[in-house]
Amino acid sequence: MFRDYILKNKLFYAWILALAGVFLLGYLYQGENVVFSGIAEANETNVNAQSAVEVVNVHVVVGQEIQEGDTLIELSRSDLALRMNEVNRELDALEGRGSINTATIDQKVAEVQADLASRKNSLNFEIEKLKAEYQKNLELASKLKSLATSGAKSDSSDPMIMRIQNLKQELKMAEENASSQIALLRGSKGIQRTSSATEASALRRELEMLRKEQEELIIIAKESWVVASVNVRDGEKISSFTPMISLTRKAPSLVRGYIHENMYKRVELGTMVNVVSQADGHKVQGEIIGLSSRIVDFPIRLRQIPEVDIYGREVIIRIPENNGFLLGEMVSISEIRGIKRLLQYKDVKDSE
């Protein structure tokens, strides 16, 4: 009975098997399959300052295309200007003190030299005077025959000669003392000059750093961007790290896609996908470079029914620069499969 039933319905089962085979082959050999949607976006950056500043002049407006080297905004810092003035005053005062100290030391050296000259003149005068008196005494003594026969005292024991020698020794000591004082004064002048030079060098280095910080208050574009938003106005005081200007690329550089939570295991990092414009159908190839680690709520734009919440995984796709998409454009992301899927299936069968 059962055998007759099978024989009667074998044509039905043959059709079922044939359809299943067609679906299987279609799945293995299909070139692409739209699996999720996304929005074309671009990298953004914010212009901010590390310290509290005041806006002097904003040079850009929203939507303006800027090139490398264009001025974005000019800022000022009152504390920076105040410190620069203080350093300049300290440098001026240091140079003034150095000049005064040098002049004072030179004056003291001159005074020592003048005292030595005066002392030398006085001692030399007295020495010459004693020499003259001694010479006269010798002449008188030579005329006295009795003294010549009895023998005169040796020169070394003569009180006048001893006085002359003492004066010469005193003159020598005065010269040595003056030389020592002058050397000490000139040495202190060198130490003062070295100390002042070291202090001045430190102040100049600080002033150079302050000038660089001041130059950085004029913010220049280092790349080509488009101004996405301007959040400040001239004269406004801004706290540190407050975004003042937002910049974005002219064309999208990535796609932020959202794949349904029931399908998120079908994609992985490095997967190549086709990104297709929902406006005109043109497409480019992209690569999945990021996968969120949690389930997120779909943007309202990507929901078929805005009132119904849909959850899934966020996927970041890198696309070529010349992609033809508009910023914020909705796109469809298609996983490239076909031969790759077939090879994976073959590898699994071979392993079995």
Describe the structure.
This protein is α+β, with helices and mostly antiparallel strands. It folds into three domains: about 30-45 and about 250-350, Efflux pump adaptor protein, beta barrel domain (Elongation Factor Tu (Ef-tu), domain 3, Beta Barrel); about 45-75 and about 215-245, OB fold (Dihydrolipoamide Acetyltransferase, E2P); about 80-215, Helix Hairpins (Orthogonal Bundle), CATH 1.10.287. It contains six helices and 14 strands. The chain has helices at about 1-10, 10-30, 80-145, 145-150, 160-215, 340-350; strands at about 30-40, 45, 55-60, 65, 70-75, 220, 225-230, 235-240, 245-250, 255-260, 270-275, 285-295, 310-320, 330-335. The strands form three sheets. A six-stranded antiparallel beta barrel has the order 1-10-13-12-11-14. A four-stranded antiparallel sheet has the order 2-9-7-4, with no helix packed on it. It has a four-stranded antiparallel sheet with strand order 6-5-3-8. Helix 3 (about 80-145) runs antiparallel to helix 5. The protein is rod-shaped. It starts with a helix and ends with a helix. Mean pLDDT is about 80; it is low at about 20-30, about 150-155 and about 340-350.
Q: For the record, what CATH class of the largest domain applies? A: Mainly Alpha
The CATH level-2 architecture of the largest domain is identified as: Orthogonal Bundle
| Widest sheet, order of strands | 1-10-13-12-11-14
Distance between the termini: 38 Å
Oligomer: single chain
Please count the helical segments.
Answer: 6
